[in-house]
Amino acid sequence: MNKQHLYTTLFLALSSAYLSACSSIAASDMPRLSEAQQKQLASERAGHLRQTHVRFNALDKDEDGYISRAEFNRSGDLAFERMDTNKDGVLSAADPKPEPRGEDTRSEQTRTEQTRQQQAQRTEQPRRERLLKMPTTHSVEGMLAMYDSNKDGVISREEYAKGRAAQFAATDANGDGQLSYDEYVSEFAARLDQQISQTGKKAD
Questions:
Q1: Which of 94, 108, 135, 148 has the fewest CB atoms within 10 Å, measured from its CB?
Q2: Is the pLDDT of residue 46 over 60?
């Protein structure tokens, strides 16, 4: 086994153990909801945490185990440019939705069959509505929730840059100018728990 493979295997093992620990900790902090709702929230929280592993690796372009400020900024710039479909330098709900990512390379037969299966699944067992809804940079609505600091319904480039800088600083717990895996997951886990708390209050 070469060193690179060994490091990758070790990283994945530690990541799995860390995410499992985060998931188990969440259960003790669950708000007072029905047992079914608590189980659903715990499951959704665990799923969100697993996705942090994917996002961390996507941001860590040089694969050094850290997200640099440059890597963080690059991701933010790409997200803004994709959502700013009318290219006016601001984001708002009036912006047309961006085109879907990537080209659909499935054959017509495959698309038809998969659509049929999805429709059958929805008929047989309606999909549960998510309880844990986190804003993301994949939609203008999510961007507004995260970065519209003055709540005027638009995000300027300057406002976005300040929001991203504040987010990086809040995540960079030791202030070394880069984000470790633990810092990245911990910051997101804290936001998940805050959202869970708000979900519990809405259910009261």
A1: 108
A2: yes
